[in-house]
Design goal:
- Chains A, B: It is found in: Nucleus.
- Chains A, B: This is WUSCHEL-related homeobox 1.
- Chains A, B: InterPro entries: HD, Homeodomain-like_sf, WUSCHEL-like.
- The structure is a homodimer of 211-residue chains.
- Chain A is mainly α and 211 residues long.
- In chain A, helix 5 crosses helix 6.
- At the A-B interface, strand 2, helix 4, helix 5, helix 6 and helix 7 of A face helix 2, helix 5, helix 6, helix 7 and helix 9 of B.
- Chain A binds a DNA duplex (22 and 22 nucleotides) through helix 6.
DNA sequence: GCAAATTAATGATTTATTCAAG
DNA sequence: CTTGAATAAATCATTAATTTGC
């Protein structure tokens, strides 16, 4: 599991292990950010949103939202001075532009599946020409796309196979045994000659490596 | 992804074991076998024009049919009745059903890697309820699955996705990078000390075996 | 036509695995 | 046997598409 911190400028993306799990969790915005900006890479139909911002909040998130509002009370008060103008909330998640999507899909089509960090940085840098984007967006895009393509394919074959057999939900029980002997026959233990040949091979290999 | 049993041409069937299973190698046919017209276990892409054939017979009858025809050298009846339609050739090799596959993968997931002969017999007995199967199929399945899982991982970690074509580079101006580190971390390559320790270990092992 | 309501897609996180190094 | 690295699978959450009642 990856936790992440990032900055918008470089797309640099520092990960740490589970030790930072809890702290990093809170990086996730609990509400659409109260920033006053239009979408940098707005999709064609971005007009009807800003609806019912707080509808999906559970108690936990409501509490945290209130905590956050305490800090930014000054900004909220300034916004209250212009109540008739709706606060334009920037999207909480990346939304690829058509150009970005086209390039990403082309890259995928040509074989890119899990790009390296450098590749991600480069792709991100290129795609930034077409709109706001970060490295993690590229990373996630490939993760998701790969997974969902696989999922699609898997569902297809599963559907094909279910024609032949009805699913049986019953449990199977196969007990574990401790026997060491292997299938298919009674394995004859390796002869001394075999062992010796292997040993000498290994020895010569080691020696050649040392040279 | 491993494709054991799904490739009718037999291209995916290879054994990495020693001369012990040398005979099994010959199971790989150079050409599709011209015999048998029904499959015991439905393959995913079983041609739809023959669905009616498959639907008539339940698994039990199919199995029986196969057993009866295992020794026959040529297809007899169906070819004459449908001369223009290519004969549905059953693979001579095992093709796992979804249930069999599910159980095998579950066993693998739970830690079974190289089951003992007893385990194999037990597993085979359980899986026979879902279709024709032999002990060697189980044995080979685990061998192949284990090997291909390892192979898959190695491919991913070592020589993964660097398939940018030249055209692509030019078009998107995304240059190839040689770095192997992947998003988001940078794996440290094995040090020289590590390599040397391996060599000396191998050497000492060989020497101890010689005593 | 229009939003509210609903559904489908998909971006972002979390969880469960894998192999293999120590 | 334990653990690190690194996903891939499963899941959550938000956005877009679509439907629906007016």
């Amino acid at each position: 599991m990856w936790t992440l911190g990032y900055d918008d400028n470089g797309g640099e993306f520092c990960f740490s292990e589970a030790a930072f799990f809890h702290a990093a969790r809170k990086l996730r915005p609990l509400l659409p950010r109260p920033l006053l900006s239009l979408r940098a890479n707005g999709p064609p139909n971005f007009s009807s949103q800003y609806h019912h911002i707080g509808n999906v909040l559970d108690e936990e998130r409501k509490r945290e939202y209130l905590l956050n509002n305490e800090k930014s009370s000054s900004s909220s008060s300034t916004s209250s001075t212009t109540p008739t103008i709706p606060i334009v909330v920037s999207s909480s998640r990346w939304n690829p532009t058509v150009e970005q999507l086209r390039i990403l899909e082309e890259l995928y089509r040509r074989g890119t599946r899990t790009p390296s960090a450098d590749q991600i940085q480069h792709i991100t840098a290129q795609l930034r020409r077409f709109g706001k984007i970060e490295g993690k967006n590229v990373f996630y895009w490939f993760q998701n796309h790969k997974a969902r393509e696989r999922q699609k394919r898997r569902r297809q074959t599963a559907a094909d196979q279910t024609k032949y057999s009805e699913r049986e939900k019953e449990e199977y029980e196969i007990e574990e045994t401790k026997t060491k002997c292997r299938w298919p026959g009674t394995p004859t233990p390796p002869s001394t000659a075999t062992l010796l040949s292997k040993v000498s091979l290994s020895l010569s290999l080691s020696l050649s490596l040392l040279n």
